[in-house]
Amino acid sequence: MIYVIATLTVKPETRAELIAAAKLSIAATRKEAGNISYDMHESVTDPSRIVFVEQWQDTDVLGVHGKSEHMRAFGRVAAKCLSAPPRIEVITPAKVEVR
Question: What's this model's pTM, rounded to 2 decimal places?
Fold first, then answer.
């Protein structure tokens, strides 16, 4: 299992446009094989920061997701709405012993 944390910094004047496009993409993504969860969050301290938290079965299905038509469509909207490059981090659960 893997997680993706994608942090976007949005121009204030395009925030509504990005969120509308994200809602369409989220609906399609949640139907993808291998997607466990896909949620959008808004920062409570910085209204320009939108964070996506995703959970996927493995990197193979994540690769398919990245090439999907709905992600390409979202990418076209995001390209004109972002004020900085997105920060995307892929993480895995830590294997730690808890006593």
Answer: 0.91
